[in-house]
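User: Continuing from earlier, I have the next pair ready.

Assistant: Great, send them over.

User: Here they are, in order.

Assistant: Folding the first of the pair now:
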Amino acid sequence: TYFRQQKGWSIVSQRDNVVVIGGAGFIGSHLTAQLREAGCQVTVVSRSGGAGRPDEPGLRYRRGGVADEARMREVIEGASVVYHLGAGGGETWADYERDFIQGTRNVARACLDFGVERLVYTSSIAALYLGHHGKLDDSVPADRTAHNRSFYCRGKAAAESLLLDLHRTEKLPVVILRPAIVLGAGGMLAHGALGATISDICILGYGSGNNPLPCVLARDVASALMLAKDARNIDGLCFNLAGDIRPTAREFVQILRERTRRNFRFYPRNIYAIATSDYCRWFMKKMLGKQDNQVPSYRDIRSLTMAADLDCTAAKRLLGWQPESDRDAFLREAVDSHLEPFHPGDLRLQAVGAQ
């Protein structure tokens, strides 16, 4: 077994048998690649089972969903570290209860029963309320009024609460990481956090679009997840994951316009107008008798303005996390990784240059 001491944590990657639930997804694929590079034995668990990909030395794919308790026990038995990046959900709150709450409980129980050394849960900043200006550090708990918010926010907040309760009552060795707006290859070019889209180049903002967005690269999120595997004395803690490059929504749309040579446009919207429109749509659906018609949440709309300043000092200090700080390098991954090279004579080169 290989050990190395660095900045107070112990790296024992070569002995680790790691299970990555949701390892075939956007962040999960970046994490899986880094785990393999570190020499870990990795089992990727997903509902698709890796889409038929064959096992490789040090890497195997298994089909399974977190709502299946028996299957979670099968894939987790023998693991030293488990990552839970699974998503799920659906049209109703019952779907989110099944995947976000009961599914997370199934994973946690298996980890306790089989003596897993650490469970690393990937939550989201959606579990927080981001509608007020001011710093928001890692000690801030999930939104206590999340029951009045979207199913996704409510589900993530409930999963965090469940895991922290199990840590307090049964010593579950869990660490919670909350990625912010995750960008990079395999993700979205125009992320939904910029605003609602009425076309692929027309973005309706949440508010003025002048608040810095807590962007982070997928590879940097994977790096933090890797560090959380071995860092000492962090069980029961939560970490916000936002990078150092934080353009506003207006700035990011302008960057898209410049680098893609397409006519991306950003339109600010008053949040009260957004709320009024959402409530009108809800009322119409209610009158038509639509089932599972979720009441709009003004708190959700406020949170989408991203007014809060996410403080990630704890992740940097306790994990040794170092997200990308070079703006050009950040933009190459966040934007350019989605683009095809321009061919000579491409009309976009002339059209945008003439504006």
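And the other member of the pair:
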Amino acid sequence: MKKEEYDPITLEIIQSSLQATADEMFASIRKTAMSSIIYEVLDMGTGIMDAEGEIASSGAGIPAFIGVLDKSVKVILKKFNQPGDIQEGDVFMTNDPYYGGVTHLNDIVVAMPVFSDGKLIAWTADIAHNSDVGGMAPGSLTGDATEIFQEGIRLPAIKAISQGKTIQSVMDILIVNSRMPDTIYGDVWAQIAAVRIGTKRLQELAKKYGADVFEKAMVEFMDFGEKASRVELSKLPKGVFELSEEQDDGSVYNVKITIGDDRFTVDLTDNPEQLSSPVNTTRDGVMVAAQMIFKSLTDPYSPCNGGSFRPIELITKPGTVFEAQEPAPLGFYYEVELRVYDIMWRCLAKLSLIHI
């Protein structure tokens, strides 16, 4: 299909197919995973990224997990940046929050590049909580950890499958470091199967409509996401809103949100230094919280994509609980993210800015 033959109906069909693919990936993991935390609790997420790692379509799962996947893929792209580093059939993994993992070591991200006629056109990715990835305590979560090395094995954005062939040494290292080797092996392969299914579906789409039309559909939908967000942002009351709140340990969390005509700025610079306990998070993790707030305020009912979040500006300070630096432990990152998510909401809610 030539460029001049682009039509909105075809682009919409492709976008709907991307959503269906992400949902199929989710169903695949749910049916094949070994851990009950995955197949019953559904502690997982799936998504499709464009060639640059921007969210093109999100599947089912925990919203905070969906916001992880683009960040993980971008780290992989940055690390494997030489010709030939990324090939058809490759599969990458990361669980390290300091290397694109975003959350904590229990959550393994699996990502696969999608090629059409030798050209990288997209990525499929998923994330799931694994029951034990090693570390000083069963389950890999303990309040006694003082550094990330105690929380489990670290996968710093690595290649696990090369051109369709498993790098068995990587799998061996992962398995031998878990107290539940059969379970983690089964769960990881469930994730790999899901990204492979997603890749197959996207390649079928690119073959049917043409890679150029496939890529155009993602660009158009992300531009639409940005436009929708900016239209709703323009309707919000403008100003600077602040909230400070004491935490259980006596520290004080501070948030300042500035709503402008074309920018939604979250400033978290004035906050406590990172802790030697595992109650810290990464900047990427805080960005996920900001994205969820922004999406809820602007266009909560449409699918999210990279364009939806372009108006967000996040300001954090390295070395604080909201932008922890190595080797700070991060096992209970979600406690921090829930707190910052909460104070962002109430910073705005008390001023009657929340309109459902």
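Worth noting for the second one:
DSSP finds eight helices and eleven strands in the chain. Helices lie at 8-32, 36-39, 63-79, 168-176, 181-209, 211-233, 283-298, 333-349.
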